[in-house]
Amino acid sequence: MTPLRRATVATLIVLGVADIVGVPFMVAANHATANAVPGAAVVAGGIIAALTLVGAGGLVRAGRWAWWLSLIVRILDFVSSGLGLGNHPTAALTAGGAFCAIGSVVAFVLLARLRRDLRAGQERRVEEAAPTRV
Predict the structure, then answer these.
(1) Closest to 73 measured CA to CA, from 99, 95, 46, 91
(2) Among candidates 128, 122, 37, 125, which has minimal Cα distance to 88?
(3) By C-alpha distance, which of 44, 24, 39 is closest to 90?
(4) In terms of pLDDT, which residue wins out, 39 or 98?
(5) Coil, strand, or helix at residue 132?
(6) How far apart are CA 46 and CA 24, in angstroms?
(7) Rounded-to-integer distance, Cα 65 and Cα 16, Å
(8) Which of 18, 62, 63, 111 is the Cys-Cys partner for 58 at CB 3.0 to 4.6 Å?
(9) What pTM, to 2 d.p., does this model score?
């Protein structure tokens, strides 16, 4: 595994775990604050966390689908974090939202760079698998 792919997978794992850790805080804020976190946002946060970890696992195997999944999930998490930052339900959720928003931008950059590497790797595998003409 290339260092770039390793960094991308590590970033996605950290963000996925951060999203999982944020779910109990969202549930608590849903019950305790006036700016309650909607129940759909809590469920979406859990789904985004799980899909982020699935995408990271797929990138370990260099799956093309995993790149797309990771990109889409990071976009959704960036939007979700932005909505959370605008609502300010609690200080912990504001800090977590800022962390995940910044982390999503870092993941976008890494995924964009990784896309070129994944394409180059696929082209190499196709060339190696093709029969040579004599």
Answers:
(1) 46
(2) 37
(3) 24
(4) 98
(5) coil
(6) 10
(7) 18
(8) 63
(9) 0.81
